[in-house]
Specification:
Layout: E1 3-4, E2 13-14, E3 16-19, H1 21-24, H2 33-45, E4 50-52, H3 61-73, E5 80-85, E6 87-90, E7 95-98, H4 102-116, E8 121-126, H5 135-147, E9 151-157, H6 161-167, E10 175-177, H7 191-198, E11 201-204, H8 239-258, H9 262-272, E12 277-281, H10 301-314
Parallel strand pairs: 3-4, 3-12, 4-5, 5-8, 8-9, 9-10, 10-11, 11-12
Antiparallel strand pairs: 1-2, 6-7
Helix pairs in contact: 2-3, 3-4, 5-6, 8-9, 8-10
Length: 329
Amino acid sequence: MEYIRIPGLDKDVTRVALGTWAIGGWMWGGTDEYESVKTIHTALDKGINIIDTAPVYGFGRSEEIVGKALKEYGKREDIAIATKTALEWNAEQNAVWRNSSPSRIRQEVEDSLKRLQTDVIDIYQVHWPDPNTAFEETAETLAQLKGEGKIKVAGVSNYSPEQMDAFRKGADLGVCQPPFNIFERAIEQDVLPYCLDNGIATLTYGALCRGLLSGKMASDRTFPGDDLRNVDPKFKQPRFEQYLTAVERLQEFAKTRYNKDVVHLAIRFVLDKGASVALWGGRHPEEMNPLPGMFGWHITADDFKEIGNILNETIKDPVGPEFMAPPSK
């Protein structure tokens, strides 16, 4: 296991965090509370000590499950909880929109504390930038919550460097959570260098690119219900076949060079590119089995180039995660 210190926390956190979007069920085809609690407990048993969630994941369901799992597990003082704020929703209409107003954030923090069954949130992140509220005003609200002892670290998610500049006029910024994986690398150009230069920890999400990099998908895979992969361009032909071919090549590369699987390579790629923490999503206990193989080795500079060559040779029309962005109201 590898650890890192996030500014503002009093404990080191593991460089892999458990991501719980899928556990909430919304946009992942439903949820199973019993299986989800077991998954969280398994991740903790394997050494992970940071869990990332959000109110919008299942319209409160993910936070409720995380809260129940941690209450049963105990050792709350050893575990960092990261959650988010500033998305509003209408569950009946299945609608979500951005809202970073102070009143919305203050309502959400109280709701999150109750669902998580805790008296303080370790990392509190603005989920998406809201153009209808000044970033400085949003930051000032989080600074007040920190002063009141309700949160420890203020963070943002999906922010650009310019938006982080504006946010930092109103509060210290400890964390940024952007998307980052072998297939979605835009942050290497701006967000990642900005965070490294300014001492801002990165909790990057999507390390397995919604399961593509698990190495367990085939071209006939289908996704039930409201699963977001039904609207992700990567999972539509002919792109889907291109990405699966890339995964096959990456699996062969990982096995030949490091005696690892593509799932290990995917996490190692994120960490060795400079991210502080990689979120590892899961909702079944057995999905935690690969965790030990992610640590104790590194990708060389030459191999980073070879990974780039594989991508250039297999994916003709790459796309990013932009389809996930919720609208402004």
